[in-house]
Structures are given as C-alpha cells and as structure tokens.
Amino acid sequence: MPGCSLRSFWTTPPLWRTVIKKEADELEDPEFVRGSVPAEAENEADPGSSCPGKEQNRDERQQRPAVEDRRQPSLLRRDLSHLDQLQEEKDLFTQKMRAAVGGLEAGPQLGNERDLWAKMPAVLQESVRAMWHVEIQERQLEDARKAARAEAPAARKCLRERGASGKAEQNQLLRVRRPVSLQKEHGLRHQKLVEDAQKNHRKAMKFLKASLRRTREQRCKEELASRERVRRRMDAVLALKNSISANRETLRKFQARAQAEAELAEQKAQAEKEVILAQGGDAFKHFCHQRRRQELEAQNRAFKGQQKLRKLEVVSRILKEGAEEDRRKQRPSPPRPAGRPLLSGRTWSCVAALRAGRSAAEPPRCRPEGRSALPQASLLVKAVSSESVQADGGSLGQDEGTLARPEILGLWEEDYRPYQPQVPKEDIDQKPAAGKQTAEDMLARTVQRLRSGLTHRQVASRRECGGRPFDSRPKLVHFKDFDIGKVYKKKITLINATYTVNYCKLVGVEESLRDFISLGFDPPGPMSAGMSCEVLVTFKPMVNKDLEGNVSFLAQTGRFSVPLKCSAKKCSLSLDKELIDFGSAVVGETASRTITLTNLGGLGAGFRFLLASERCETDASPSVFNVSSSFTYEDKGFDAKIATSVSEQLLEGGESLPADVPSRKESGKLAVKAQEEGHTAESEGVTLTTVVTVPPNEGQTEFSLGEMTEGEIGPFGTIRAPVIFTPIVPGAVSARFKVVFKNQQCPTLYFKVVGVAIDVPVWVPKPNVDLKICMYDRLYQDSILIHSRSNAALRLNFEVCKGLQGHLQLLPKTGCIQALSSYSVRLKFLPRRSLPEDAGQYFDKESRVLEAPMTIRVADQVKPVRFTVHAIVTTSDLELSPSGVDFGYCTVYEAVRTQVSLCNPSLLPQEFGFVGLPKFVDIQPNDGFGTILPLGTLQLDVTFQPTEAKEYNFELVCKSEINRCFKVTCRAVGVHPPLELSHYQVKFAATSLYDTSLATLYVINSRLSVNSPVPSVPRIGLEDASPVGPTSFEFLLPPNSPITISPSVGTVWPGKRCLVRVAFRPVLPTELIHQEALQALSQEAEARWSQKDTATQRKDQRRQSSIPRLQNRDRLSQASASQPPELQKEDLTPSSQEYRAAQATLTRSFQGKFDKFVVPCVVASGDTKDRKGTEPLSFSPHNTVYLELWCPAVAPSVVVTSDKGETIADFGDIAVGQRGIKKVSIQNVSPEGLDLEYSVLDPYGPFVLLNPIRKLASGETQALELSFSPRESVLAQEVLEVITKRGALSLALVGRGVAAVTTCSIDGGVLNMGYTIAGESTSAGFKLQNHSPLPIKFSVQLASLSTRSGGQHQLPRCLASPAQRTEVVGTQNYSGQSVFSVVPVEGVMEPGRAQDFTVTFSPDHESLYFSDQLQVVLFEKKISHQILLKGAAREHMMFVEGGDPLDVPVESLTATPASDPEHRQEAAELKPILVTLAYVQLDTDTPAPPATRELQVGCIRTTQRSPKKTVEFSLDSIASLQHKGFTIEPSKGFVERGQTKTISISWMPPIDFDPDHPLMVSALLQLRGDVKETYKVLFVAQVVTGP
What pTM was estimated for this model as a whole? Predict the structure, then answer.
C-alpha cells in the first residue's frame, strides 16, 4: 500500500488488525480475485491459459463465429464498465487502508500489543502483495481496454442486435453489482469498527494516564515515608550510640572509684592486721568486734531514724486530737462529772510523767485544761524512749481516742468503792473549811500515796509482820520453748502470808514485757490470813528471744513481785562418745560402730557429719552479723563464745576471714531493710555465717560414714550414725570427724576414730585383665597369675559371675597353691550373640564394654580375691546401603553411576572385596577392594553401562576377611535411543569472564529402514522398536546456567544429522555481586563512622588527655557493630553504580572456576511442525541422551579500569547534532603483551572509535576514546568487542539522542509592542520552556544586527509589491542604535525550567513601521523560534489605527523637519484614513447583515508631563453619514492614558443605492490631546452579490 508506514502498522490495535487481516485474506484468496474479474476479461488478458473451461469456450466460439461477433461489442462495453468499477473499488479500498493505517499510527502507546509485532509485517506484506496482484491484473487488462475503446463505434452498431440477449446481460450486471454492494457494506462496517476502536483507544489512554498518575503519587508517598523511617532509625541509632558511650564512661568511673576504695580499705585493713599481729593480739577477733561495732552503729542510726519518724507520727496524731478537741469545745457538750479529767489532759500528763522519769503506770497530776500541754508537744516527744514510743504507737493505732489508760480499771470505774484502810490521823488530810475540798482531790491523794509505796504496818499479837506479804505458787512463772504467734496462759496463786487481813493490788509488769505479757486479775478485796487469789498470766510471743522480768503487786504492807521468765527454743547438742576404737581388722573386711547425737533442747537443727579436714558450706542468712538493739558491749560471754567458735573453725581449716562477708554499708542496708519489713531489732539474734571451702582429700580413707550423714534432728531427739571401718592398706589408721550444724549458734562437735588393718595372704598382681577388642564367635585366651605369701598351702576355688558361664571359663575350676609360690589359671573367652542379654549389668550396650568380675575363694580366708576381666565386644558385620539398587533406564551410549554406602559397625578394621562382577558393572575406588576403618563408612561408586537394549537383574557380592558374604540386588533396563550425538562430552577451552566459547556437534538419526539388525534397533528394554521416520529432540538446560544451545529443539530425518552449536559464556553470580556490593557499602559506612569517631576522640583528648586508648578501640568496635541496618537494605540493581563497581572488583580478583554440566536431550518420534499450535510432542523420558559439558572459566586478560571497572559506556543524553566523547581505560592484566583487534561498529550509527589501540603491553593501561553523535532522538546501543588471543572484552555503548524541545509563550510568532512616544521606551516579555531532559544552551539574535548577504540584488522595498517583500527588518532609529533590544542574549536553560526574556522598544522618531526579527538559536546551530517584533512611535499622545493601508511600510527618505510647526500642522490636517465596507448579499429575498468595520482611538501612556490626561475624539457629519446608511458608535468620547476605544462603523445600503456605483463619503475625525489632530476618514461602500 502506498503511503503506509510499517512501524505504525505494527502498533495497530487488535480489533483493527483482525479486520485488516481478514481483508488481506480475502484479497489473497484466488476465488476473490477471479470472482471480481469476469471470465471473458481473463481470457482476453491471458489467452495462453490452460484452464479447461477456457478451452471449451474457445471451441464454442470457433463453432459459432457469427454469434461471437455479435456479442463481442456488448462484452467489451461490459468489460470496460466493470474495469472502471474495479478501479473505483481499488481507490476506495486504498483510501480505507490509508485511513486505517493513519488510525493505527495514532495509537502506538499501547504497550500490551508488542507481542503481535512479529505477525503484523507478514500480514502487511500479504496485503501489499494482494494490491500488487490487482495492479498487475489492471496493467494486463489495459491493452484489452484500449482495443475495446477503438472498437466502440462498431460496437454501437451492434446494440440494436442485443434485443434477445438483454435479459441475460441484466442478470450478468446484477451478478457483478452484488459483490460491489457487499464490498461497500463491508467497507462501511470496517469504518465503524475503526471508529469504535479509536474511541476505545482514547478511553483506554485516559484510564491509563489516571492509573499512572495514581501509581506515581503512591510511589512518591512510599518514598517519602521510607526516607522518614530511615531518618528516624538513624537518629535512634546515633542516640543509642551516644547513650552507650556515656553509660560506659560513667560505669568505668564508678568501677575505678569502687576499686580504688576497695584497695584503700584492703590496704588499711592489712596494715591494721599487721599492727595487731605485731602486738600479739587476735586479728580475727579484732576484726569481728570491729564489724559488729560497725553494724551496731548502722543499726542504731537506722533505729534513730525510725524513731524520729514515729515521734513525728505521734506528734501529728496529738495535734490532730487537739484540733478535734478544740472543735468539740466550740460545740456545746453535755455536762460531765467534775471529778473526771479530760482525755487530752490525761494524755499530756502521761507524756510529762515519762519525761520526768516516772513509770507510765503512775497516774500523773492532770491539769484542769488539756490545751496548756499542747505547746510543749515537741519538747516532750524528744524525751520519749524507744520502748515507750513503740508501745504508745501500738495503742494509738488501736484506739486513737484513749492515749493513756489506767493499769487497774477498777479504781477508775464509777461503781467501784475503794477500801479505806485505817491510817493514823496525822496522815489524813483534813478537809478545808466551807467544803472546798472535792472528791477529785481526795482520790488523787489516795492514788498518789498508793503509787508512792507508802505502806501500813501490821502488828498482831504485838508482833510486826515482816517478809513477803504474799507467797506465790509457782515461785517462778516460766514459759519454755515458745513459738511465735501462739498464746500461752498460766495461773499464779497468791496466798496471804501475814497475820492479819491484807489487800493485794496488781501493779503490772516491767516495761520490756508489756508488749508480750497481759495479766488478768480481779481484786479480791480484804483477804484474811491464809486466803488466796489467782492471777492469769497470758503470754503472746512476737519475737524469738529470751525475756525476763517480774510481775509486781502492791500489798498493804508493801510491794512484792513474782519472777517471770520466757525461754525461746534452743538447741542443746552432744555426742555420747568422743573416741571410737575398732581394734584390729583384716584388709577387705568391714567393721561398724555407732555414735549417737542427742538434742536436749526444744529447737531442731540440721546436722552433717564430715571429716575434720573437709570444709562445710552452710546456708547464708540475710545478714552476717545481726544484733538486736538491746545488745551491749557488756555481754562478754556470748560474744566470746561466738568469737571462739568461729576462730576455732578458721584455725582448723587454715584459712583467714572469708572475702564474701558483707561490708558495713551492706550490713547496714540489710538491717534497715529488715526493719522496714516489720521485723523488730529484738527478734533477730546473733547470726554468724561462715562459708569455708576445703578441697577433699585425694587419697582414699578407710573410715567412712553410713547413710545417715546429714539430716535434721528434732527437738529432744536422738540420731544414730554408723561409722564403718574398711581397711585397705595394712597398718594403724585414724581419722577425726566433726558434726556441723546449720544453726551457727550451735558449736561444732568432734570425735576421733582409730583402728588397725591386717593384710590377706593370697593376691592377684594383675587385678584387671584386658582382652582388648574382641569379635563375636571368636575364641580369645589369657592366663591369670596368683601369688601367696602364706607359709602353708591353700585351696583355691575359681568362680565366674552368673550369666557369663556360657561365654567365659576359668580352667581349672579348683586348685591348690603352695606356700610362698604362684599359681596360673587359663582364661577362655568365646562371646556369643546372646552376650548383651546374658551379661546384664556387666555389659554396656552403648559402649560395648564388658566388665566381668571374677572371684577366687581361699580356704580359711573371709575376704575372697577378686579380679576383673575387661573386653570390648564388637560385631563383624558389614552393612550395605541401600540393599537394592535400581539403575532405571539407561541408554547404550552412556553409563549410570550410583553410590552404595559400605558401613563398618565394628570397632576393628575389616578388609572387603566385591567378587564376581559382570562386565557391564564397575565399582570404584580400587575396583571394589579395600579396608574399611572402625565405625567408618565408604562411598562406593557403582557404574552400570548396558551393552544392548534389554532388562538386567544381577547381584553384587561383597566378602569380608573372615569369608562373610553380603549382597546387593540390582536391576536396570537397557535403552537404545532413536537418536545419537556425535559427541557426548564437550570440553571448552578456558574462557574469560563475560566472553563466549563455541562448540559444535551433531544430532544423528542413523536408522534408515525397518529391516535393520536386531542389536541396533532402537527400543526400550524388550518393548517394540521405535518407528522409522522423522525424530525430534530438545535440549533441557539447567536454570541459571552459562550455557546456550542453538537450536535447542529440532527434527532429524532418517539418515540425516542436525548441526547444534553450544555456547559457553561465564558470568559472575548475582548473589556474589550483591554480597560484594553490600560489603563495600558497609566498609564505606564504617570508614565514615571511624572518621566521625576520630574527630570526637580528638575533641575528647583536648578536653581530657588521660582517656586510655582502649576506650577509643571500644568506640571503634562499637561504631562498626552499630552500623545502620539501612545499608544492608539498599535496592541494588544491575544498572546501579555500586553493583557495577562490585562486578568489576570481582572480575579483577577472579581466580578461576570449573563447572561440569550434564544437559539432557529428550527424544520424540515425529516432526515438530506436525504439532498443533504450542502442543508439545510426546517425549519419552527413557529415550533421553545426555551431553556432558566441561566449562572452565578464567579471569579476563583485559579489564576496564575507569569508572570502577564499568563496562558500559553511558554517554547519557546528548542533543541531536551534538557530539559527546567518553574515555574508557583498559589494562592488560595478563603476564604477556597482547595484540588488540576491534569489532566493526555500525558505519551509519552514532558511535565511533576515535583511537583504536593495536598493542597493549603487560600491565599497561591505555584509554580508548569513543564519540557519540546522534542524528535523531532515539536510544542508541551498540557493543564494541576488544578481541585478543586470550579472549574478548565487550564494551556496551549506550547513548540517548535528545531533541531540543522548547515552546514559546508567544502564539503566532509576532510580538507587537504597540504605540509609544518617540524618545521613550516600553518593554514586553515572553518565556521559553525547556521540555527536554537536558540543559539547552541558547543565544538570541536580532535580524537588524546580523550580517545580510542575500539581499544585495533585490529591489528596494518601496518598489517591490507586498507579495515580493520578504524583509523583516523595518524602520530603524536615526541614531544607529537598534530600536529593539532583548535580554538575556545567551544562557543555559535547565531541564524543565522556563527562561524569561524581556524585549525593550526604544524608538527615537515617529514611525508606524518599526519591525525586526528575533531568532532563538540553540547550541549555536539550530534556530528554534523566530519572532517578528513590531512597534509604532508617535510624537504625541494620541493615535488612530484601523482602516485600509494607503502607503508602503517604508519610510520616505525625506522626513518632515520636527522644528517646522506649520508643516507639522499641515501634515496633521492631511492625514487620511480609508475605510472600505462590503455589503454581501447572496439572496435578494433574505436581508443580509450590515457591513461593519472598526477604528481604534488610543492614548499613549507617557512619562512626560502634559496638561491633559485624556484624549478627546469627535467625528462630524454624523447626520449625512446616517442618511447614507452609515451607523457610527460612538461618534465622540475620550480615552484614558494607556487605553484604547473602539469606534464601530456599520453600513446598510439605502433604498436608492445603486449597486453598480460604489458609495464614497468622507468625514473629519478630530483628536484633542496635547495637540489637536484632524483625520479625514474616507468611507467607501459597495454591495457584493457573490463570494
């Protein structure tokens, strides 16, 4: 098709392609061509055709010549008309195809249709071929057409004879017109489809652009989020690094300070110890007392702090109570008895009494008002003791309303009447006169006398009673072995021991017992002599410590008390003996004695029996020394006991004070923690924790303890521990044992054990008989030698342990050994397979070790003589894995290899060998013979190579050195494939990286007929033979292999062969390149971090020069370990710079590699062309032949050294017509010089090698200069190969030619600057937008300033017609300066940026034809834009434009002088304006619209001062103009500065208008501004009746 573009046709949408393909098929169909041309025309065009139908028609014409002569003119005319129709149809079809192709060119952006590009050229060629076929037929029929036209006059005469054949002709015409109508209908349908396809294409492009925009936005968002996430991670890593560095520095300082303090304390303690030892004192005791003293001080400080807190709490509660009391006083309170004091008053009285040193039980004198005691609260609280505060705190917590209670409630009850004994009158205070003494005063005096200890003397029968007034039973109230938390009660019976009536009052217990002891006593009143009363004593222990005190009573004759004692549970441990004597015992015998441990106390303890030389580890208590607050230095006995016990233990062990005893600060913290948890200081005793470790005695001791060596002894319990004496070596032995207890308050108990050992007369010098490693079912023998030191003969009996009698024998079983001689016994060992079950505990199944104890019993000897037989029993089996091997299907052209594992489970090496192997089997290594090590495994390669196509079944026999056989069954199927290879193994030469090596081989089909000999018939096993015929093959390459096979699929005919090329191109693995790139990035990051750390270290060294170097190393290691993980996550693509640099590095350091590939080639019967579509052939997996490839890869001899080894020379974007040069440095890394050759580049391409280097010495580096000069805007790619005898180096040349695309903001290419005042200037701007991806260098040129050489022989502009005027430079300034100027003149436009230009119009005289041409030149060569600059200048501020031109755009050579005002006024009055109006009237019946024109009146904006700011205009003769049919609006008005106003002129021909004579009317237009100007407007109107 003429005018059809092949490239645009490839991008045709699928629907259009289908339609065009169908049309091409119809054109290609012979029936379509024959049906479109009549048969007669074909006969005329091709008279020599051999068609049978044509020959029959020729015969008929010969028989009937007259009829043919008559029909010929009609047939010729019909042929002519038909040919004309064919020509029209052809033209129509050509136009449709051009339209379709144009539509196809409009849609090349659909990327999903590229897969059909290969099909479209064929369809296009077929369509073109069909069109050519039509053209050829048309040319062939031209002669017939000319002959028919010549005979047309004769044919007209024959028309009259066609009456009979008219109907036939009409039918023929109908048959001819029917295909034409069908073709027209088909064309319309085709056009509709094309339009629909275009519409769909536009919609698809719209949605595609929207999708691409959303995708770009989403990618931008993801990229921003990723950058933000990376930044946050970097900040976090840096913050973590700084924090770690600061923490390490701080920790190092604290450690150094603590170490220095510890060293100083240790030095101080050592010096003090030396001083004490020099003075002869006990250093350990001194340090023990010192530590206890420190702990006491810490506890005292903690107690004082706690006491202060309690005091503050009491004061706050008292203040709170006082505030509540004030509030109650403000409210009206009910009357109370006058004799009862206030609660607050009693409280403050009690506190005052405590300060005065009196007991809390004494009733103080209460003030009448409690408020007076409040100011002294702070002073009183300071004097409160720890015990009283603790007691008061408990009472306050229980009842806040009663801070002080009386001890005896009965005296304060209302219904209690105290007994008034008879006292002397002088002791009785008389009541004051007038009844002022109240009952309250009397009661206070009585209570005061009772508590002051004043007694009444008893005299009976003139005898005064002396001694205790009351006897108590029991004499001592003793609570023994109490448990904390339980309640204990006891009764005290008090008997009146006086001679008369007496009274008894309970005073209470001591202050230290009030928290634990409560008394129940009901005052009995007066008691006669001998009468008794009871007191209930309740004890509730809360601390585990001993308590002592008295229960005080007050009798009439004086005070007395009953002692009270509370004893905590204690341990009282003792041994029943300190020496155990075993006497004499024979070596080997065992004697036993018992020692008893007794606990007489109520507290149990954990005990442990140990040798005296052994050290014990007891459980550590929370604090090493925890002493109660009541402990003082006067308690010498307990302190001395603890110190003595500890010193004894340490002196016996030979060790000093343990290093893990807590320091004073730690013990103080533990004490404070214990107090915070609620444990009082009194509840903790003195706890000493000693951790001593002594390594056990390496020698074996004769004395041992029984099973009861440790445990718990309960209260009042007894433990019996056995001591066993087992003599080993003759002689006297002794040992010392000790009993240690978990309770450190219990002292360690010691006892001694002695005994004498006597030796036996018979012994075996070799008690262990080692038979080494033995196998099952094989006999092993040895002799046992026995010695006797006795002076008499002894009888011996030899016994084998039970279960081994069937495997082991001692011969003889009995014997007699003479005095002072030796005796030999024969040992026979024959292990059976049942040994592991029979031996039982004597045989270890995992290690296969047999330890059989043998016994020799001697007459009259208690201890038998024992010896042990040691042997390692192992098997003699050999294990073959697998037990059966299936080689599967194997062709006769290759061998199948499999591995068989031979395992030796024995502990001895065994020799083996495979015997009786068939010829088609081979076993390696060493042909199947060798020695296998103990517990070893050998991998044997079994190779099977069939000799013919059949089934194979055989066995492989392996024999050991003891003639044991082990078999492996094998099976296989021999296959004779239909095809064979000329070479089954290809060894490539050493190939450089990214170079290619080629090898050729043949696929052969050697079978020619069915009657071939039987052994060579292709078959699978015993199946039917393969058919004779074409056979197809296909090579299956492994994935990611550097191998290429071409053709990989093909068909071989019988007796033929197919050439196959195998290419090997080694490349570096992508994973290795990624790893190298990531490692390089990590090293760069580490270097940056190291630089940062180095700078930081320098700053730190300036600040503090004593920082050790080890700290810097730690920082470096920390920086390298804390590298940001984002470096490991960079997306490395093959086009990235890091990837290419890593690839170049690995290429230079490549040491070589050898790979071996086995490529299967499957075979199938049939031809590949016979398959339907993409249906695969039925390849049989058994008819597979294999090709083995040996592929050695070596390092390249020539490498690229520039751009980090980059082998891709990317020129980037180069403007079309420009030239870019790039240098590539290559180096010879081989040990010899190389001659270089180069591949041929495209001579019409943009790439050129400027300096081909011919020789390159070893180690030499040269630079290749490459140039890129694009001629069009395309992406150019070529490969330049540097060829040497060692290989080739491929350089990829890439470059993009980019057309400089710029757009101008001025539409139409004309920039009109408008009117301006002569001598002034005005400016206007425009923009150039750079749409290309590269920067563009531009320059701006004015035509008036450029040299012009082409206009020398042209006519002057004033003489040339408007059509002949081509000059763009108009009137210029008189001064010689350019009337137009532009800035900037040159520069560079960045990609995607816009450049602003400013054009300045500066005329120096009045003219209407200032013009110039501005050219934008890119890269100093290409003119991209031409802008015509126009402007007009006036000497005054008003102007009129519009109308028809009356002069030429050229200035006259004679200008009117500006200094002549008369000429100026005359020129102004004579300014004509021609306005022509053409009234177009096409139809006389329908009125046409009036003819219209416009005039522009303007006022120029100027910087000159002028009395008038506006321009007034007026047009006279308006009435006459209207009479002539003219309408002018507005006829007068004014114009502001910088504005224009339009005067609209319309004309409608009047009724009396003569169309043949134009109407000419004139009017005056006056302008009044800074001057007055008059214009003569000449109106010429005419009527036009046609276009």
Answer: 0.38
H or E element that contains 460:
strand 459-460
3-state secondary structure of 946: coil
Buried b (16+ CB within 10 A) or exposed e, 70-79: ebbbbbbbbb
Residue 1459 half-sphere exposure toward CB, CA atoms < 13 A: 0
Residue 1121 identity: A
Residue 1430 forms beta bridges with which residues?
Answer: 1312, 1411
Determine the average pLDDT of the residues in 1513-1533.
Answer: 86
Instruction: Give the span between the Cα atoms of 1262 and 1372, in whole angstroms.
Output: 60
Nearest to 1184 by CA among 894, 921, 1384: 894
Which residue is listed with tokens 């292999």? 1041
Burial class (CB in 10 A: 0-12, 13-18, 19+), 565: middle
Q: What residue has token string 């549970």?
A: 569
Strand boundaries in 1285-1406, DSSP class E: 1287-1298, 1302-1304, 1310-1317, 1322-1330, 1336-1342, 1380-1383, 1386-1389, 1394-1401
Helices then strands, each counted (H, E), the chain: 23, 77
d(CA 1300, CA 1339): 14
Strands 1511-1515 and 1532-1535: antiparallel
| Least confident piece of the model among 259-268, 585-594, 1038-1047 | 585-594
Q: What is d(CA 527, CA 506) in angstroms, rounded to the nearest whole number?
A: 14
**Residue among 1297, 1300, 1298 nearest 1418 (CA):** 1300
- Amino acid symbol at 841: Q
Encode pLDDT of 810-867 as tens digits.
888 888 988 888 999 999 999 998 898 888 889 988 888 999 999 988 887 777 888 9
Instruction: Specify the higher pLDDT residue, 1284 or 77.
Output: 1284
How confident is the model over 1560-1582, as a mean pLDDT? 86
Going by C-beta distance under 8 Å and a sequence separation of 6 or more, which residues neighbour residue 1583? 1478, 1479, 1481, 1549, 1553, 1555
Q: What is the DSSP letter of 754?
A: E
Q: Would you mind telling me the total number of residues written for the chain in this entry? A: 1587
Which range has highest mean pLDDT (114-118, 1399-1403, 1438-1442)?
Answer: 1399-1403
Residue type, 960: S
445 vs 442: CA distance, rounded Å: 5
Q: How far apart are the first and last CA of the chain?
A: 40
- pLDDT at residue 658 is higher than 50: no
- The residue written with tokens 């709170």 in the block is 320
Q: Are 1236 and 1283 in contact (CB under 8 A)?
A: yes
Take residue 1152 and report the two structure tokens written for it.
């070589």
- Report the run of H or E that residue 325 belongs to, with start and end: helix 283-330
- pLDDT tens readout for residues 263-293: 888 888 888 888 888 887 777 788 888 888 8
Pairing of strands 1057-1064, 997-1004: antiparallel
Spatial CB neighbours of 1165, under 8 Å, sequence gap ≥ 6 = 978, 1026, 1027, 1029, 1030, 1031, 1032, 1178
| Interatomic CA distance for residues 1127 and 211, integer angstroms | 32
SS3 294: helix
Is the pLDDT score of 632 beyond 50?
no
- The yes-or-no verdict on residue 53 having pLDDT over 70 is no
Query: Which residues, in sequence order, are CB contacts of 1122 under 8 Å at separation 6+?
Result: 237, 240, 241, 244
Chain segment 181-236, per-residue pLDDT in tens: 888 888 898 899 999 999 999 889 999 999 999 999 999 999 999 999 999 989 99
In whole angstroms, give the CA distance from residue 1262 to residue 1249.
14
pLDDT of residue 899: 92
**Rounded CA separation 867/762 (Å):** 12
Residue 1375: the pLDDT is 83
